[in-house]
Design a protein that fits this description.
The protein has 246 residues and is an alpha/beta fold. It is 29% helix and 25% strand. The protein has a 5-stranded parallel β-sheet, with helices on both faces. A 5-stranded mixed β-sheet has the order 7-8-11-9-10, with helices on both faces. Strands 6-13-12 form a 3-stranded mixed β-sheet. The protein is elongated. The chain binds S-adenosylmethionine.
Length: 246
Amino acid sequence: MSGWLAVAGLGPGAEALVTPEVTSALADATDVVGYGPYVARVATRAGLALHASDNRVELARARNALELAAAGRRVAVVSSGDPGVFAMASAVFEAVEGGPAGWRDLDIRVLPGITAMLAAAARAGAPLGHDFCAINLSDNLKPWAGIERRIRLAVEADFAVAFYNPRSIARPEGFGRALEILRGACGDARPVIFARAVSTPDEALRVVPLSEAEAGMADMLTVVIVGSSATRMVGRFVYTPRSACA
Ligand SMILES: C[S@@+](CC[C@H](N)C(=O)[O-])C[C@H]1O[C@@H](n2cnc3c(N)ncnc32)[C@H](O)[C@@H]1O
């Protein structure tokens, strides 16, 4: 029996938002590899080995998964949301690049999932209806100066911006700094969406003008969407018109 490796996106939380393709891969897998809380979302069953690891060991986890697949196991590497968005798919290919030549011929598939910003945008209305970008505010793997530069350029280009990983206990200050930059460049009225734990029982959605946005409104379970200059409210919904361009 030949092994395979599927890098699978579990979506933002709700079972209904897991794609049938991912459900089918999980049903065929012999091994599930991932960050502990994501592995915990996979139902256990006889014959399924769960390999949960810490958040900061992505490359080691990817290598472990590739070794298992090379040994003939059917391996699902799980991420929340989409595995290609600030998640494990890149780590797997980085491990392939630095690993044995034989890993390049393995049966590797990336199975998409619904990423947090799309689930959050759908809850709020259509804030990403025109051009947008996504910025990861974690400076674990890149310098903060580069993050600030990207924020400034995103505002200059008039993108709506989705911010992932806005604020953690280890990084309490970055998001406040990001808000300062945005306030300096965007004016006060820009709608800001704080979408927390979207599609889970703890879901909370809050929309405030940029002038009222505070760093404490976000944590690591929150994705923050800041509108472009054209983004506006209609009733309780936030949307960006399809014709927008500054
Ligand atoms: C390491 S990134 C992983 C992103 C994931 N691969 C995705 O596509 O959504 C983790 C960040 O995603 C966002 N996130 C993930 N799930 C979320 C949810 N259900 N609601 C709101 N934000 C979420 C948060 O910003 C969190 O800090």
